[in-house]
Amino acid sequence: MATAADRLRPLPQLSPAVSSWVDSVRELTQPRAVYWCEGTEAEMREITAQLLEQAQLTKLNPAHFPDCYLYRSAPNDVARVEHLTYICTRAREDAGPNNHWMDPQQAHTRMRELFRGCMRERTLYVIPYCMGPLASPLSRCGVEITDSAYVVLNMLIMTRAGRAALERIAREGRFVRGLHSVGELDPERRFIMHFPEELAIESYGSGYGGNALLGKKCHALRIASWQARREGWLAEHMLIVGLQNPRGETHYLACAFPSACGKTNLAMLIPPASLPGWRVFTVGDDIAWLHPGADGRLWAINPESGYFGVVPGTNPQTNRNAYEMIRRDTLFTNVAVTADDQPWWEGLPSGTPVLDWQGRPYDPARGPAAHPNSRFTVSARRNPSYSVHAEDPSGVPISALVFGGRRREVAPLVYEARDWQHGVLVGASLASETTAAAVGQVGVTRRDPMAMQPFCGYNFGDYWQHWLDVGARLARPPRIYHVNWFRRDADGGYLWPGYGENLRVLAWMLERCAGRVGAQESAIGNLPHPHDLDLRGLDLGPQSLGALLSIDPALWRQEIAELRAYLGRYGERLPAALLAELSTTEARLT
Ligand code: OXD
Ligand code: MN
After folding, report:
1. What is the CATH number of the domain that holds 131?
2. Residue 65 is assigned to a structural domain of this protein
3. Which atom of ligand 1 is found nearest the CA of 79?
């Protein structure tokens, strides 16, 4: 417990380990000044004022969007760069075929050359942060050093940052070291390097969220997944949502979807009017840390304290909670603006953009007004559906895990895994059409096991074995499901309305967890009996429902063959149990 005298001591003195690391980085990067973040509101206002003065931020219309600001990134720096993201383990096989790999010594040498003198004429900010509630034994800490004040603002929203985090680091003596510089924002001089064995991250040349807010993907997923394997838990790309049914029972679900597939919408879902009595509580929208509890259940915390969400498409119909949440105290990145300085994006019901996301006069011939990966950063406390249990040090107990992808065909609306081991195969089989969240072609189907392809900090073969091991320790494991909100008909139209209506599928899962409904066994897992899905008030013909729940054996045999070839890349590290599950499914299909 910190005493009053401790609190008066300057931040650098709190942790000699952090101070000496900061000193060595200062020597390497040669900043003009060093600033230690306290994590106060006043500090946030001060940094905002500085960025406004330097015209790096624009104030948005205060009558309609009080305390909201717009940041425009460099046009070549708008998404994660998976091709420049590396896992640097001593043994290449530990990074696995799922990661780009570089020898740690070689990577450090390369990065040192980039970082040398890179902060001349800039301020070096030290951000001590805690991922997860400050008082939770499940949380883990880190320190990010950056030369971007925009990154500081984001980190102050997205993590519990400042003095309290540094106090915890001083007590624990353990933290993830993240060094970041925007460098020259030159894509040719851009690398995101991870050193899991050293609990270290080095990121150079990008200011984009996933590359630069090191607490998020770099720490809370890539490094944490490695830490989690050593310590016996799971760090996953999952939202956490609480659903209260009309009987008053609340169950928590953790759901993995690839980037930009609607995790934020699902986490804040508004129940349809035709399903009265349901309530939804958001614990997290992007990352879940899952720990086996003494009671044999899986318990989850959200390591983040804010949302870095995709803006386009947000409106009162798709996500009213988010739409209301981002009307104040929000940092927008790369949206368009109207003539009276309101933020604008595709999917809004009204308003006209005059400047596009690059600040140019809007011309539809040049593409969308807001960048498809434009983002909002906002405190989770602003969310009308924020769960009172999101801050619980012990987390929330998970009743079901849900995997989902964006698939035109093959995957039905929902199916249930036979058991945990089969569920691990279901998660490993996730595939999805790519989106604008990462640089590259959009709309091509790629394998994205557990929605962790860009985020698992080690060999997927070892990761699946770790999943099997965690399951073996759970006396009361969650049930595991697969969903596909994106199935299309022959004309390309979506068969399922999505958004709030997804509750109908989640409600079926909860009835299954409570043992109140049966299911039809199929080759790939258990499907709902159509009469067990509550479709009251939904305009969905029996034909559409039939199509949504149909399984085409020929397509599935092809899917299994592709999956077998994909899993084969993991060679000896692939758990035999997964191959056995695959063979069981294959045998059932023939
Ligand atoms: C994100 C992502 O920003 O997955 O959450 O890209
Ligand atoms: Mn994500």
Report:
1. 3.40.449.10
2. no
3. 6
Asked if 332 and 69 count as a contact pair (C-beta separation under 8 A), the reply is yes
The residues whose Cβ lies within 5 A of ligand 2, an ion, are: 259, 286
Q: Are residues 410 and 544 in the same domain?
A: yes
From the CB of residue 490, how many other CB atoms can be counted at a distance below 10 Å? Answer: 7
Residue nearest to atom 2 of ligand 1 (CA): 259
Residues with a catalytic annotation lie at: 261
330, 364, 382 — which closes off a domain? 382
Domain count, the chain: 3
Which atom of ligand 1 is the closest one to the Cα of 437?
A: 6
User: Any idea which residue has 């029972």 for tokens?
Assistant: 249
278/360 same-domain check: no
Write down the pTM of the prediction: 0.96
Instruction: For residue 566, give both structure tokens.
Output: 């994909």
175 and 160 within one domain: yes
* CATH code for the domain of 332: 2.170.8.10
Per DSSP, helices labelled H in 96-162 are: 104-115, 149-158
Kindly give the distance from the C-alpha atom of residue 526 to the centroid of ligand 1, in angstroms, as a whole number.
30
Same domain, 285 and 368: no
Report residues of the chain scoring pLDDT below 50: 1-3
Spell out the residues 6+ positions from residue 355 whose beta carbon is closer than 8 angstroms to its own: 336, 337, 361, 362
Instruction: Identify the domain containing residue 167 by its residue range.
Output: 4-56+79-231
How many Cβ atoms from other residues are within 10 Å of residue 142's Cβ?
Answer: 29
Orientation angle between helical segments 163-172 and 16-29, nearest 10 degrees:
110
Ligand 1 pocket residue status of 80, Cβ below 6 Å: yes
pLDDT at 2: 41
Whole-number Å distance, alpha carbon 437 to ligand 1 midpoint, is: 6
